[in-house]
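Quick note —
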Amino acid sequence: MSNQTYQKVATDSACFVCGPLNPIGLQAVFSTESETCTSHAALELSADFQGWQDVIHGGILASLLDEACIYACRAKADQCVTAELQVRYRKPVPVGARVVVTGQLTDSRRKIWQASAQLKIDDGLYAEATAKVFILDR
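Predicted structure written out below.
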């Protein structure tokens, strides 16, 4: 086992997904619930994030799911980064759709935690992910 020291991740308002000062970012506002270790955000995805015509790019959806997993972990830890992300796309997300992204911490017994996330429109599941999240402040 390595005795590596990890650099603290600086808080930054320029994050592409959640940074309020990033003029070309998503500017998603995530809330967390510490008792349930969950996260939640709702936002409208404009044509700025289009892949194919009238469809949101899959990388944008992966970024939102990743962030939902991180915020779910941040309900219990301050410093964490994604170690692995697996995404499953279920339906194309249309441009202009209002999406709801939720995350859930599912295992926090080691240095690498497990989390999951879902992206929905109304009650329909459009994409989901599982993540391994490395905890830096433990």
